[in-house]
């Protein structure tokens, strides 16, 4: 029938929080929906579903992404780590810092914030500049992150409770300063 589109499915193999998972999804399924609806991984949250709040942030092959804007089929063979998967026999230092600094209130954004902090630290260590980076010299990554740099790098993660000062304190605890 003209104008009718059949659903196309694909099987995707993902390592999610250390567990190898194969799942068949419609090729239009987002990674977030695949994780939550198909695999029962509820750490990444569905906030805005438009890539504007960051509550769905996960690490894919070590890089932070907004999972509500990414198709699951794009990540066949990838390693995905959620906030739940960061803990390895104990809390990750970022998770511990969030607790120490009381960096959450309702907690809805916290898994995305935590994954984003881990990704942000790795990006900074790797010499990836942000809009607030004063010196674009690759050796500048050895410089400590300023508060403005941290705020800029975390600007894609929103907290409706406005726990930003405590989130910044938690990040400071992890990166020093």
UniProtKB/TrEMBL annotation:
Pfam families: Fer2, Fer2_2. It comes from the Bacteria. Keywords: Iron, Metal-binding, Oxidoreductase. Residues 10-86 form the 2Fe-2S ferredoxin-type domain. This is Oxidoreductase iron-sulfur subunit. The lineage of its organism: Bacteria, Bacillati, Actinomycetota, Actinomycetes, Mycobacteriales.
